[in-house]
Amino acid sequence: MDNRITDKPAVIILNYNSYEETLNLINSIDKYDPGYCIIVVDNASGKKERQKLSAIRERCITVLLDENKGYASGNNAGIRKAIELGYDTFLLANSDTCLISEHAISDCYAYMKKNGIDILGPKMVNETGADISGCICVDRYGGTKHKFTDDITECSSLGGAFILINRKVTDRIGFIREFYFLYREETDYCIRAHKEGLKIVYYPEVTIVHKAGVTTKNVAVYYYNRNMFILSREIYKTGSFDLAAFFFPRFLVYSLRIIKKGGTGKEKRRKLKQLWHAYIDGVRDIRGVKNVL
User: Fold this and answer.
1) DSSP code at position 9
2) Is residue 203 classed as helix, strand or coil in its secondary structure?
């Protein structure tokens, strides 16, 4: 007997020392689109953060992980919990997103079900209202660009901060690959789904706010840049020599940008260190978590 819940998605929120943002997102769901099963996955936050999370246990299901293995691992834990509960569709929502209109989740889900869509993402704007989403285009070296549009568009990849995924995707290609640790994993996931003939749609009829970088700013330079190498290898089978030759002059340019940009000397040294560790580890195909602070 199939006991899948098909009338609503489970909402999965990944928390890492971001209780205030997580609470803000839960409050926005309760205000604009209540009635969803919310699963908060805590990615091994500190003791004080865990104590704060106890305050929302009556409002959601909490999954407390003993180790932070990254974005994919945390969301995979949430997906497994949702499958265990019988859900057919999962909304992966970063803790630094929030709803700003009535029925935002319901409208996305209704359009998704009506049109047989397997992965759907709404329009995302930052706190100033600027569009930061659109369709994601990937080049053979793992670089990503946004194709901004106000039209409902079928595409090969979407941003992963607020994304609905049908269980058909996990049945077909499995879970999100965890060796990226942070950044590019949702791009990898969407492209692999697209190659399997699954339908991915950008849906700008609904808009949500995404305050990017709340929990990742200290390590973003390393993972964002290193994982271009991994994505290029996985999707386009690009070799180490081609990657090294292509990225070396570009990393010199990135270095100059860091030096010229504002900030303290300490901050610039940290970013430069992360950038060149990203280059070396990218060429060597080092994956997973690394201490780069």
Assistant:
1) P
2) strand
Give tens-digit pLDDT for 21-61. 999 999 999 999 999 999 999 999 999 999 999 999 899 99
Q: Is 15 exposed, middle or buried (0-12, 13-18, 19+ CB in 10 A)?
A: buried
**What pLDDT digit, counting tens, does each position of 227-237 carry?**
999 999 999 99
Cβ–Cβ < 8 Å for 63, 40 = yes
* Residue-wise pLDDT tens digits, 55-86: 998 999 999 999 999 999 999 999 999 999 99
CATH code for the part of the protein at 10-210: 3.90.550.60
- CB atoms < 10 A from the CB of 124, how many? 24
Judge contact between 94 and 18, C-beta under 8 A.
no
What is 101-117 written as a DSSP string?
STTHHHHHHHHHHHTT-
N- to C-terminal Cα separation, the chain: 50
pLDDT at 264: 92
Which sequence spans correspond to the domains of the chain?
10-210, 220-284
Alpha-carbon distance of 151 to 68, in angstroms, equals 37
Sequential DSSP letters for 28-93: HHHHHS----EEEEE-S--HHHHHHHGGGTTTSEEEE-SS---HHHHHHHHHHHHHHHTBSEEEEE
